[in-house]
Amino acid sequence: MLEHVGAAAARLPYLPLLRCGRVVLSVARRLRCVRLYGGAGLRSPPVPSDSFWRIIRIGLVGLVLAAAVAGLVLGDVWLWAAVEWSPPTYAEFYAPGGFDTPTVVALLVAALVKAALLWLILRAPAPGPLDRQAKALRRLLYLAVAYTLVLWYPIALLPDAVDAVFQLALWTAIDVLYLLVIRWRSRMLRAAAGAMFAVELAGMANELLDELDLPELGSGGIVELGLVLGGVAATIITVVGQRRDGRWSRGTLAAGWLSVGVYALVIPFNFLFERISSGKEALLVMMGAVGLVGTAWIAATARELPAEGRPADLPPARRRVIRVAVAAVAVLPITALIHPEQTPRLTYTGWSMDCYDRPRFGDLKPAEHDAAFLCRARSTAGGVPPMFPDSLSDQAILAYGRALCRTKDRDEQEAILTRAGSARPAGGASPWDLIYVCPEIVGATHPELLRSTTETEAAYTAYIAEKNAKCRDPWPGTKAVAQATARYFLFVDGDHGYLVQDPGDEAADHAAEQAMDRVYDDSALIGVAGSAVLIGHVEDVSDLCLTVKAFRTAPPQRTAGWDQVNEVPIVSRSGRLAVPEMGEGGEVGAGAPMPNLAIAGKGRYRLRVYVRVDDAGQEHHLVVVFPGASRKRLELKP
Q: Which class for 269: exposed (0-12), middle (13-18), buried (19 or more C-beta within 10 A)?
């Protein structure tokens, strides 16, 4: 969600602020007097003359237009501040390198639109008596307008929770007074309005709970969308109530319906904003400008609250001209930003939210495969340049991807990527990426890439179990206090071997590093460092069969059938000695649970290592541990 519709963005966790938009207003202080109305004494504030309000309107609107012209001369940052009525630092956030031409044009158009709407907002309040409730409603509505135009910035300097509390309190009071002041002329309509207002306020309360890090009323996109639509419905039913009341002019009702139309644009705009690849700033500016229609409606609602003095409706011809002008101002700038058909359409970029997760092919629906490939083709993960430049459209990238699937070697892939303008043509295309765009071709040679996550995990578990089953206990007739046999998986390149260590030792990491440094100092490839022993592999293998056994006393040496047998000291400071396990999702370690080999608790132990390589090239290790105080290294079979 964007933060607000205006200089920063569209405020959409809840809708009351959308009823306001964003601009600037000063409300003159009003004196109070008493006048008779219908036999009852009602307090009615004297309203300054129209000429006084006209001077204020001309001055402020002229200032807005002059500031826009000055900003055009002084630079992009000041143009943004003049049009969006927000600090210049906001412009540096949205466009650190300056604005492009469409954004500058959008800012100038937005200045005219905002000036026109500000002219309407600053119209003098209609004269006439107001009871206490209507007077309170008028003041709160003008406070909402002032917040949207001016007060939002100082309040934004406070914690977000303060802003959320202020909004909730303000719109709770306004909605309650709406129910009391508007003459709904139908109990059903008043009840429906109360229900919609409750949904609207629930959305604001949900926002407050989120700011306070408390459990929210609901989570998920459906709940959030429901709260947003409830706010839209609250606006619609308010306009309907105004029409049935009869106090408000057609212009005010038209502004209310136009504000509903703006919400209809803002809601999909917020959800689709991340997918827009170009022109984001221009669209943001225009949405902020048209969002001011809601503020004009709120101001008009407050202005026309008195029962007397309702302004006369405009002539039909003039109303049609105004409708055409408003529609043109709202639609034409957005239409001008629509690119021609040949311009690349970019659904996903490397920074798109939808591209952060990388689901497997089998987890996706067929309609989602192209989107997954586009994410990967434009990914810059790890600082690597994307496979294709952003200047290519989605359709072009998909076509190049299918062409890559039909290549016979890496040279053909490089030629295609070079033609496409890739920054890394020599890297080619991986089948892990191409599986999404041509599964029938890649899947024929890499069927494992077609699996879902569940299928992949099941296949991996079965693979580990099969590898473990091929390893046998070399001493099947000698039962130990604790023992296990499993396949130990190593790094394919550069793995020194495996550790037997005390994981509870405070210096475990340091001991492991020392053992690693010493492993090549010994011809038997065994590095010893206190509570850690690193045992190297004698052949260039990626895995080996490992059996560990723990005895209470030293077992017979039984060196026959082994290529080498060595015995070294090791200490357990925490009462544990263990071999690392692979664990869930791991790639290195034992493929089955390994026992604690320090069966006598804390103290010194002897560790005997048996190593041999069979005729098939498979390396077998037997590790025997038993209590022993000796610190000597013994070579039992060289």
A: buried
Nearest to 8 by CA among 153, 108, 105: 153
Distance of CA 250 to the CA centre of its chain: 42
Residue 590's CB: how many other CB atoms inside 10 A? Answer: 23
91-95, Cβ contacts within 8 angstroms, sequence gap of 24 or more: 94/281, 94/284, 95/281
| Chain centre distance of CA 490 | 36
Which pLDDT band holds residue 192 (cuts at 50, 70, 90)? very high
Is the pTM higher than 0.90?
A: no
Q: Name the token pair of 637.
A: 């079979």
pLDDT average, residue stretch 492-509: 88
**Residue pointed to by tokens 């009852």:** 40
Distance CA 319, CA 327 (A): 12
The tokens describing 260, both together, are 């509903």
The pair of structure tokens assigned to 460 is: 């991996």
Gap between the Cα atoms of 570 and 68, Å rounded: 78
Distances in whole angstroms, Cα of residue 481 to Cα of each of 476, 484, 487, 609: 13, 10, 21, 18
Q: How far is CA 358 from CA 353, 368, 434, 578, in A?
A: 11, 12, 14, 35
Q: Could you report the per-residue pLDDT of 46-60, keeping only the tens digit for each? A: 555 567 778 888 888
Please enumerate in sequence order all residues whose Cβ is within 8 A of that of 561, keeping only pairs 6 or more positions apart, or say none.
474, 612
pLDDT in tens, 282-296: 777 888 888 888 899
Q: Which two tokens stand for residue 169?
A: 């309190």
Chain CA centroid to CA 608, Å? 53
Task: Give the H/E segment covering residue 501.
Answer: strand 497-501
Q: Is the pLDDT of residue 12 over 50?
A: no
Nearest-angstrom CA–CA distance, 445 and 426: 22
Helix (H) or strand (E) holding 377: helix 369-377
